[in-house]
What we know:
This is Putative hydroxymethylpyrimidine transport system permease protein. About 85% of the residues lie in helices and about 0% in strands. It is an all-alpha fold. The protein has one domain (about 35-245): MetI-like (MetI-like fold).
Amino acid sequence: MKKFNPYLSSSLMVIVLLMVWEFGARAYNKSFILPSPAEIAFTLWELRSVLFLKHLPPTFLVIAIGLAISVIIGAGLAIWMNASKTAEKTFYPIIIASQTIPIIALAPIFVLWFGYTIWSKVAVTVLITFFPITVSAFDGLRSSNKDLKELMLTMGASKKDIFFKLDIPSSLPSFFSGLKVAVTLSVIGAAIGEWLGAQAGLGYFSRRMMTQFDGAGVFAPIVLLSAVGIALFLLITLIEKTLLKWRKAA
């Protein structure tokens, strides 16, 4: 009996949805509202030099800087809250509250503070990505085995030894789970920031095409943004599998 391949079913589902979209868009016949996948692909190819050389690099830079800052802030807060109950009681409610504020409402404020520079987009990206990193890393640090910790203490291990040899390895699976969520959200954060105020970027280009009622031009950078998010997710997955080979063996 052949083993079921979930990737095959996913691929078939995507093909079916694209075919339905294609025929539906052709029947609707209003490409400025609902372009077909074929029109989007043609526009993406036609604008490849503009999108890949001019607008993709600024967006990717925003994503990279935002994720780097989120990892530093998120991991730092998680370690601090795990080490100090006072820090946990002080910052954890603030971290939760920060996610109850609509990002779309704060983005214009960041534009007022930072102008149309890269930092207004980075601020939006950080705000939307640091939460899953912080919470997942904190939960991972708290999940370290208590019996192993007591055993290490009886064997004369210091707090530093326990942190680096037990807490950090135990938290890595949860940390990477949060990071995989964050990389997909980073694309959304960068796009939102560019939609509300930018001079270049995929989100900016999509908004500019919308003002020209170019439906395929609106969708083409969105497809590219989705591809960037998928590529980053796969990269983090590859790094996770490389660093956590011991988890598979266990």
